[in-house]
Specification:
alpha/beta; 15% strand; binds pyridoxal-5'-phosphate
Length: 430
């Protein structure tokens, strides 16, 4: 197996090359040349595996021996050293809770796996590896925490001061160690512009290996398959439907990849907010990216979902085949908020806005006549979003990981919206 570019104008890469490059030169996405097939015995034995062992089995065929088995096992156990519980909400619907990791969001898994792969590969380099992340809150927090205390890697994270939620701010500012957090007097776009400039700075590149830990990196994408295997391990009966709250479509593409390697799933539904490029695609089979619209489920505010092409690739770009096992639906913020209230009243469940979008879409699209049952992915803990308390009318208790953070001193540095000021701080770390 090797990785090819979905644009097909770059050479093949092995796992290591694809992880270090992030994206092929032709600006496509890396995709495995063969999808490994697991046999029936593997699925029958899922119950007996720990989540870490499961992660090892799922990831091993994709690594192509470029990380030793011992190291890969260690990486996998560190990546998923938390629960992925399946919680039944109604007779037909269960929540797969992906928020029990260190930053209470599902991106922890991909970020932790990637950080450890980069740490492993960077042992061969003499210069330091520096990961530069700009964040509007959620993603960057998972990446920064994922790289925290990974040997040989420095992290510089930029976020717009005062524009992230309380919990996100705590998660971003209290890390310390190899993570330098900069609170920029500016917007998220300013943060991103500076991050891009750092990554392109030739003089800096001579001093360190700079990388962006981009969300399309295969080391962030592939490990997300683990959730779906973990869900099936705890599932009895006919194959379920998975409903996935989707923005960039990485999580969903990973589930479909798992299915292509033999995981029993009846069908998939993408749950979207007002950013409905993929629901429109499924009606017209025309891909029309649009500027993103701000919504309650803001981690899904994506107008040009980069990973959707990986889904098309799994189906050999055959739209009819895709439509047999895949639907995409969109709901409004008003429906999202109403669903959060309903879920609390009827199921005594506090959902975050992203999970609520998925619950609603699943509930509205299950075929009860054929006895369909489904799992929706609850992708973040509700305390991460200030809107939850506004909508439900009460504050929920902070998980212990957050109250512990609150007692630590803030280690962030305030900085003006100025490239040279940020660059000086970074150079001081090399
Ligand atoms: C990133 C994110 C999503 C969307 O996942 P994609 O893989 O980008 O589709 C959904 N929910 C939450 C909480 C997220 O952080």
């Amino acid at each position: 197996m090797h990785y090819f570019s979905t644009n097909r104008r770059s050479p093949y890469a092995n796992f290591r090359e694809a992880v270090l490059a992030g994206q092929p030169d032709d600006r496509g996405l890396f995709f495995p040349s063969e999808i490994p097939r697991h046999d029936v015995n593997f699925f029958n034995g899922l119950d007996d595996l720990s989540t870490g062992d499961l992660a090892f089995q799922v990831m091993k065929p994709y690594i192509m021996g470029e990380i030793t088995d011992d190291e890969l096992a260690r990486i996998c156990h560190e990546t998923v050293n938390f629960e992925i519980p399946l919680v039944r909400l109604t007779d037909e619907i269960s929540a797969l809770e992906l928020f029990h990791g260190p930053t209470l969001a599902f991106k922890d898994v991909g970020a932790r796996f990637m950080s450890r792969c980069l740490g492993y590969f960077s042992r061969a380099f003499s210069e330091k590896t520096v990961v530069v992340v700009a964040t509007s809150g959620d993603t960057g927090g998972a990446v920064a925490a994922g790289f925290h205390n990974v040997d040989g890697v420095e992290v510089v994270i930029l976020f717009p001061k005062g524009r992230v939620s309380k919990v996100q701010e705590m998660q971003l500012t209290r890390l310390g160690g190899n993570v330098t957090t900069l609170e920029l007097h500016g917007s998220f776009d300013d943060c991103q512009a500076i991050a891009k400039q750092l990554l392109a700075d030739e003089a800096l590149r001579g001093k360190a290996k700079l990388t962006s830990a981009n969300s399309i990196n295969i080391a962030r994408w592939l490990p997300q398959q683990i959730y779906y295997f973990a869900a099936i391990a705890g599932w009895d009966g006919e194959p379920p439907i998975f409903c996935v709250p989707s923005g960039n479509f990485g999580n969903l593409a990973a589930g479909m990849l798992a299915n292509a390697s033999g995981l029993p799933v009846k069908r998939f539904i993408a749950a979207c907010n007002a950013n409905d490029v993929v629901p429109r695609y499924m009606e017209t089979f025309k891909y029309r990216p649009r500027p993103s619209i701000a919504t309650l489920s803001n981690a899904m505010d994506v107008g040009d979902p980069s990973n959707f092409v990986r889904i098309l690739e799994i189906f050999g770009h055959d739209d009819a085949k895709l439509a047999e096992v895949f639907a995409a639906k969109s709901i409004s913020d008003v429906e999202t908020a109403a669903t959060m209230r309903e879920m609390y009243k009827q199921c005594n469940y506090i959902a975050d806005p992203h999970g609520a979008v998925a619950f609603r879409v699943l509930r509205d699209n299950l075929d009860r006549a054929t006895g369909e049952k489904g799992i929706f992915l609850e992708t973040a803990h509700p305390v991460k979003f200030d809107s939850v308390a506004d909508i439900l009318g009460f504050e929920s208790a902070l998980p212990t990981s957050i109250s512990e953070l609150a007692s630590r001193p803030s280690a962030s540095i305030e900085v003006e919206n100025d490239y040279e000021a940020v660059r000086d701080i970074l150079v001081g770390k090399l």
